[in-house]
Structures are given as structure tokens and as C-alpha cells.
Amino acid sequence: MQGLDRLFHARSVALVGLSADMGKMTGAPLGILRQTGFGGRIFPVNPRYTEVGGMPCWPSIDALPEAPDAALVMLAAARVPQAVRDCARKGIGAVVVLSSGFEETEEGHAHAAELAQVARETGIAVVGPNCEGVWSVPDRVILTFGTAAKREVLHQAPIAILSQSGAMAGAMARHLQDSGVGCAYVVSVGNETVLTVADYLQWCIAQGDVQVVALFIEGLRDGARLLRLVEEATAKGIRVVALKAGNSAKGQEAAASHTGKMASPYAVYRDLLHAAGAIQVDSLTDLIDAAQVLSLLPTPPVRGAQGGVSVFSIPGGTRAMTADALEDHAVPLATFARHTVTALGEALPEFGGTENPTDLTGQVLSHPGLFDRCLDLIADDPNTEALIVQVANRGPRDVSERVELLGRVAARTGVPVITSFLGDSLPTSERLRLRAQGVVCARDPVEAARYLGWLWRARAVTQALPARPVAAPQPTTPPPRGWSQAATLLADCGIAIPAWCIVGAGEDAQAACRELSFPVAVKALPEDVDHKTEMDLVRLNIGPQDLAATVAGIRSRLGQPGARVLVQEMDKGGIEVLLSALHNEDFGPVLAIGSGGIAAELDADVAYVALPTSPARVRQAIARLKLAVRLRGWRGQPPADEDALLAAACALGDRFLGLQGARELEINPLFVHPRGSKRLVAVDALVKT
């Protein structure tokens, strides 16, 4: 963190490998530093020149007359590790490596390993390599070759951009600057050979000038740490907006070829980031818009069961569209107090609509003061938690004439105020006038609803997140070997196993299973095959007279005449649940819970929770699933014992964390019996190492 402090607040920088040709990528950084107003000392380093851009050029890092705060390195990959070592020896605090030719190429892995070793040995902060650099707008430290930074004026806003794509980082910064909104910090993290996106997030959280962090993610190495930092940011009122790329099979291939690492399945990212408090978006434009909206508008106040968005609408034709869009984004409409409806009725013609969303008609533009009067009535309603001002076809003019009025309403009420048009977009200068008054513009009601959806999500996560255990059990126990040990582990988690026996080679099946109650299930052992149903290795409702033939049939389909075969009593059933603990490549240990049975993969009704976890966090995850409906009682069925399920899920997660070398521990199905029974029954368990 000290190295990043010196980088983002640098008063002196070295440009290592700087070209005298400002048109080249290796020459552009000097021009950008000058153009954007860097006021500190600049030290070009290149043995080929004695002077660059009218400045003395030094032959080596060792020859510099002082230790700069930061260095920008633009050398061939093979030369970068030694250059970074030289920077550390000189006392430079941080290095930004623009050079490519590291993990993203087959021959560059050795250079990356050497660079990481240098950083470990010296403790120097290294950004990149293979990145587009960093921006620190407050201190005008713009260390990049990117064209987005080539501008005379930099606008500052409490927004930090952290991106695993240099192009995406530049695009976000460019749009925020071009719009006049601005940003505070930009980091193109590159290959993350040394520092990761989590390190930059940690640094941003500690700053006093960051309110929104925009993340562009392709894949993570330290996802568990990132989740903890997102939770920390959320607890401090910093809004984290995330766009995850590489979600499809082809997308994962593209992300891997670009960054040198495979992305994890999107569902895991979606659920774990959601639980940590992140606000997730689906496009670059939404990431940019969300950063702007969340950096300006306040969190909607909570005003009871009747609270929600109030709509001041001139055209009646947008009422249904607005209501539909708000529902799509889980944003409630306010129910007006009776005195508001009465006052609106007295002010408007009979053909106006006084219920929310309103239809105020063009009369509010024809009668002096009526616009202001109706706006005040709606904004001051006790159930107004946010306000949409929906204008009609001359909307740009009407809004431009009332910028100060809208600003006064926003300041007086403390609620988010959004002006919505009919497909219009105001000029940048007009949008900035409104932004200065605390008002955001939307091109239509659907866009306004999307903006409010982000604000409602931000409000939801400002409430305390359910506690997650801090200490995780240490992996000291070997994983269970075979069905017998797996059954013991499940029993320790409060999960019952129907009475069972194993029929060995040469054994009489009826004699071996004489203590079981029929009918029974006959199947291959979990250690012999993963997906028994697909391979026709499960037989149900088998009577004693058919037992021997069924056991023989299982062995035949396995192709193992001497295989041991599992025989179990049939459970009377309950709600079928999939419960699994597994190691995720990006986040580490994760709990998966959802609808189980033979259609588990088809339904994909599964939620993921980071381990270790708590019953409250698992309950939150289940609440978003169809499983939640089944557990509450569906089509006359009794409610299931959800509390017992939550306790068992957490216990299973803890046991998994304590296993050495286990990759996955899955129960499918787990039968959850009626509430109060405290009965959970597993008929199968799979352990992968």
C-alpha cells in the first residue's frame, strides 16, 4: 500500500525506455504527462539519448540524480526484471510495466516468474505487466500511452476504475471525461503478475475521495480476498459496480487467450459478488452509467410499506411502460397519501390522472405555476423515496428552463431525482448543469427504471450483511475413502443415511441384506462411478426375490464381475436438494445448494456461497431460488425443515474445509423432511480428490 501511495501521489517519475518520437507508444507518456498538467519532476531514462523533449535523458536508473516516487517501464520483456530490480535498489516506490510478452505468451512465462521473484525479494509495488498504465487525476499522475488520456482538461469525480482489460479501462475513463463527469483513479491491471485487482481495491477503500469503484473482471486469482474487500467497501458506503466477462464457453476461451487464465462459471461470480454487496451490470455502457448515477444520487430513504418511486408524468402514454420497467428492476411504486391525491385532483383537469404514476397532462405547461405546484405535491408526499420527472416531446426545453427548480426539489427532499425524456438526450453542457444540481437524465422511462434499480440495490446492501465466520477450519483430516467413511462424515453433519449394506463378490445378496426392509434401492458405489443414473446403475423398489439378479445386472453394466454393490432401504422422500462443497479456481472453497434430483443440471436452480458461511447467508442464497418456494410448501405439501437444512449446509462446509486434498463433496439428492422433524436424509454422496 505504501508503494501505491507513492505511485498515485507521485511528485517525480522516471520514464524508462522512453522514445524521443512522441508518435510512438513508448514516446507518448511524456506528452501525456505534460498535456494533462503533471507538476512534478520527470526523468527520461534511455542510453540512446542525452536529451528528450528538451529534458536531460539519463543512461540508466542508477545514474538518476534522485530516487523518483514511481517509474514507468517500457522495455522488452526480457529486460524488465532487471530494470525493476534497479528501480528497487534506487529507492523507487512503485513501477508500472507497460511491456507485453509475459504470461500472455508461451515464451514469456519465465520472464513473468523472474519479475514476480524480484518483487518478492525487494518489496517493490509492480503494476502490470502488459497493461495500459494508471491515472491519478487528483495529482495529475497519468502514466499511460492510451489515447483516452490525451486531453488538456481532466475532470475529477469520486470514481475509481479497476479493469483487467486496458481497452475497457481507457473506454470508461474516456467516456467519463468526455461527459464532463470525470473520475479519480484508473488502473489497467494487466497480467497481475505481482499486484492484483484486490490490491488496488484495498487501496481505493482507504482513500477519502472514492465513493464508487467500477470493476471489469475476466478472471481472478484471489477471489476470496476480493469478496472480503467488496464487503468492507460496502460496509463503508463505497459502492462497488462489477461487470464480469468470459461467461459463456466461447467467452471463457477468449478471456483465457487474452489474460492467460480461464474464467470461472458466471453463476459463481454472480452469486458470490451479489452476497458481498456488489452491484452487477451486463454491459460496458451500464458500467459507465452506473458509476455516474451512483456517484451523484443519494441512497433512497426508507419510508415504510407504501414507499417507493413517485412519478411526475406529463404524458399519460408512459404510465404503463414506467410501471412495467420499475417492476422489472424490483423497484416499488409509491402509494400516494390521500391528501396528495386530493390536492392533485383539485389542481388538475378532470381528465388528468392523480394516482401514481400520474398523468398530469399538458395543462401543467399551460398554466403558470401548475408545474411547480404539482411537482412539490408529488415530491413532498410522505411515501416518496425517489422521483421521476417524465416530460413529453418538448421535454429538453421544459427541463432546461427548470434546472434550478429541479435542483431545489432534490436538495429539499433528499431523494434521488431523475428526469426522463422520450428518447431525447441533452447536450453535455445541459446534463452537467443538471448534475451540478444533483439531478440525473434518462433517455426514457426504462432507462430511468434501470438507474433506480441500481440505487435500490445499493440501498439493500447498505444494511448489515449477515455475519460470515472469520476463522475457517484448517485442512488436517484426510478425505473419506469409500461409502462407509462418507456416511460417517454425513452423520457428523446431522444428515441421516437410510439403512444399507454392501454386497461383496461371491456373497449371497439376500443373506447380506437380511436386516433391511424391502423394497430397496440397488446401485453402484459412489467411489466406482460418478453419474450412476446416466449409466443406468441405479435400480429402485427392488423386492427380495429380484435382489440377486439386480445386483448381478449392476455388476454387468459396470463391467466388473467382482464389484461391490450398495443396497439401501428406500427413504419415504421429502424435498430433493443438491448440496455440495467444492474448490473453485477463482474463489477457493464454495458451497453450492439448490434443487436436487435427476434434473439438477437441467433446472440449474443452484446458488453459490463462499465458505466458511453462516445459516443467514445460506438462507439469503436460497431465497433467490425456486427451491425456496418448494421449501415453504408447494401445492399443499407441508413446509420443509429449512433450519435443519441450513445447519447441515454450514456443518458440511466446515467439514469440507477440514479435509486435506478434497476437491468436491456432493450430496444429490438430500431429502429434507417436514418442518420440526429435524430429519435430513442422504441416499448418495460423492467425494472427489
Describe the structure.
- Helix 6 (197-206) runs parallel beside helix 7 (223-235), helix 10 packs across helix 18 and helix 11 (319-328) runs parallel beside helix 18 (445-462).
- The model is unreliable at 256-263 (pLDDT under 50).
- A seven-stranded mixed β-sheet has the order 9-8-11-10-12-13-14, sandwiched between helices. Strands 23, 24, 25, 26, 27 and 28 form a six-stranded antiparallel β-sheet that branches. The protein has a five-stranded parallel β-sheet with strand order 2-1-5-6-7.
- The chain is 37% helix and 19% strand.
- A hairpin with a 2-residue loop joins strand 3 and strand 4.
- It is an alpha/beta fold and 689 residues long.
Q: How many beta-strand runs? A: 28
Cα radius of gyration in angstroms: 31 Å
Structural class by secondary-structure content: alpha/beta
Number of helices: 25
Q: Which range best describes the helical content: under 10%, 10-25%, 25-40%, 40-55%, 55-70% or over 70%?
A: 25-40%
State the end-to-end distance.
Answer: 37 Å
Question: Unreliable segments (pLDDT under 50, ≥5 consecutive)?
Answer: 256-263
Largest sheet: 7 strands, mixed
Judging from the principal axes of the Cα atoms, what is the shape?
flat
Q: What do the pLDDT scores average to?
A: 92
Strand order of the largest sheet: 9-8-11-10-12-13-14
β-sheet strand percentage: 15-25%
